[in-house]
Task: structure prediction
Amino acid sequence: MIKPLQRKSTKLADREKFRIFVWTLFDFANTSYSIVVVTFLFAVYFKQTIASGKPIGDFYWSIGTSVSMLVTAIISPILGAIADYSAGKKRFLLFFTLLCIISTALLFFLNEGNIVNALLLFIIANVGFEAGLVFYDSFLPEITSPKNYGRVSGYGFAMGYLGSLTTLAVVYPFINRNMIKETFPVAALIFLIFAIPIFIFLKDTRREVKRDKSYLKIGLDRVFSTITHLKNYKNLALFLLSYFFFIEGVNTVIFFSGNYASSTLNFSMSELILFFIIVQTTAIVGSLVFGIIADAYGQKKSLIFSLIIWIFTIVFAFVTSSTENYLVKEISKLFSLNTHDIVRYCFYGVGLLAGSVMGATQSTSRSLMSKLTPYEKKTEFFGFYSFFGKSSAIIGPLVFGYVSFLTGEQRIAILTICIFFVIGLIILAKVNEPQEIKEILN
Result:
């Protein structure tokens, strides 16, 4: 017979599992936008169709990504502070989610030469997507205990990559019929359907607060206060600086991997689909495994390991992207295959490696951020987390796009990504994990 205390404990555990599931379902939803618009189909469609396949298309695309990230970087800390004060995260999350969904659906109406309209719609959609993540991420401390941050954050990213695979399966018939434009409203619909549960079932602790100032003034005041007292959070500031650099590399890979495979390696659409299936599948495994590793051995060690893999991956991609490279020629002789095939197979290997740490790096960063952040300022500090992440994404894609435009060769531009990972790794080594983590681990 189950005792009342045990029954109550079981109900609480079940309730927490349900909250976690609903929270991760939003990750499942929003990656339909990420995979279709940012990483894969619209990214390639913009370069090949809207920009007529010209090299300057990379530069235009980098401008779009950088502007959207700049806008998000500016507004995220303010919105986070307002949400902390009013405890109205869900309202902000709903607004930015709808902004992204509507703009994504409208991409259907774009054709060759509509560069300005394409950039405007993409910027609005990406601001909606990225700004919404500020409020989504800040729910993490409310749905589980600190000892489980790593694995729950990993569950979210794993569910997200599962969403990417599901979205690819849904849009594949459209791709097969060369109906690329039709995939944009389909992605928007998937985002809408699977985002609904978080707004219905996840409670937002809301309280009535008397105020004699506007929310904008409150937000600005709290942001200014946080900045002036940042000396009290030196460890957190050091982590954010590290995050600024290494997430720059991750964001640039996400924004340009599709264009790189299509333009530099001449991947067909079917080869691109296979490549992204490899990336998304390994990302699911990587997010889950690194989440467990982070909780068992510490977020910092897990992050360091993932950044080392990233550095190796970028160098490997550079070395094996040319048919004239010595290593490519030697592998070609060894397996009796032409160098073009070796380049393609090696890039699938790049996708496997990148996928294994893509979600893991972001997931572990989010869980470490949750550990370092004061609970009462969680959304405000996640706004700064977003600020550092998004402002870094202004520079990385812009540098990649500009170097690609100047040299006419994306292969040279890829080396710029490696620099960001190295700098981030050096700074991360100086970050101290919170004392409570060490106590849990010991």
About this structure: The mean pLDDT is 84. Residues 273 and 293 are 30 Å apart (CA to CA). The two ends are 35 Å apart (CA to CA). The chain has 18 helices and no strands.
